[in-house]
Design goal:
The chain is of the alpha+beta class. It has helices at 6-22, 83-95, 108-114, 125-128, 148-156, 176-198, 208-217, 223-236, and strands at residues 32-36, 43-47, 61-65, 101-105, 135-137, 161-164, 168-173. A hairpin with a 6-residue loop joins strand 1 (32-36) and strand 2 (43-47). InterPro entries: Aldolase-II_Adducin_sf, Aldolase_II/adducin_N, Aldolase_II/adducin_N_sf.
Length: 246
């Protein structure tokens, strides 16, 4: 497979922002998605602060280093990024070179599950994708303190998804496509849990063996093929308004 270029990553990341908007996972301008710039371990792309997700274009993404410095020339407004977003994303990109894309959301259902002591319950097939594969990070206030990066990384561990208690969701992937699939299913699992709990009926829990078996099934060798098919199909939801780079 051909190595991605920065232009291609910008195109895919802008599409991911629009898909997050399409699936109503936005919170005005206050959440963020980032992607590692190919060919370097030290630069990543993140949204320019103030641009709504549904209007995100490749040129609206700011390239910064792990110290938060803009890499490309531009005025202060065009290089402005969310400070808390920098803390969260720089932590993951600095520590997890296997991850190319990180998504953070503040959805109502994601926050609701993040407020529950037991977190994500293993009660749906969507949730079992994350069985024993989900980190939890205790709330420490708005993530403006760079010292929190160490505990964020420790909480994530070797997982690709995490619940930020009292705050929201985080999902990542080795590609933009995988990050999209992970945040989509994590969000859907939270939605289903909140609805199931609201019914007030006793919940049915699969056995631990079934939970682990199901989680392992999501990791079968054909998983990357599925991920790419999902991503390709999801991008068609954005046509014909999404500008693509040929």
């Amino acid at each position: 497979m051909q190595e991605p270029t920065e232009a291609r990553v910008r195109d895919e990341l802008a599409a991911l922002y629009r898909l997050v908007a399409h699936f109503r996972m936005t919170d005005l301008i206050d959440t963020h998605i980032s992607a590692r710039v190919p060919g370097t371990k030290h630069h990543f792309l993140i949204n320019r602060y103030g641009v709504l997700f549904h209007e995100m274009r490749p040129q609206d993404l700011v390239k910064i280093d792990l110290d938060g410095n803009p890499v490309d020339p531009g005025d202060a407004d065009s290089q402005l990024v969310n400070a808390a977003g920098f803390t969260i994303h720089s932590a993951v990109h600095a520590a997890r070179h296997d991850l190319a894309c990180v998504v953070h959301t503040h959805t109502a259902d994601g926050i609701a599950v993040a407020c529950q002591r037991d977190g994500l319950l293993p009660i749906t097939q969507h949730a079992l994708r994350f069985y024993n594969r989900l980190g939890y990070h205790d709330y420490q206030g708005i993530a403006l303190d760079l010292e929190e990066r160490e505990s964020l990384v420790a909480s994530l561990g070797r997982h690709k998804a995490m619940i930020l208690r009292n705050h929201g969701l985080l999902a990542a992937g080795s590609s933009v496509a995988e990050a999209f699939v992970n945040i989509y299913y994590l969000e859907r699992a939270c939605q289903a849990q909140v609805k199931a709990q609201s019914a007030g009926a006793p919940l049915v829990f699969p056995s631990e063996a079934v939970c682990e078996r199901t989680a392992s099934q999501f990791e079968r060798p054909t998983a990357p093929i599925y991920t790419q098919r999902v991503w390709t199909a999801a991008r068609r939801l954005l046509e014909p308004d999404l500008e693509t780079i040929e």
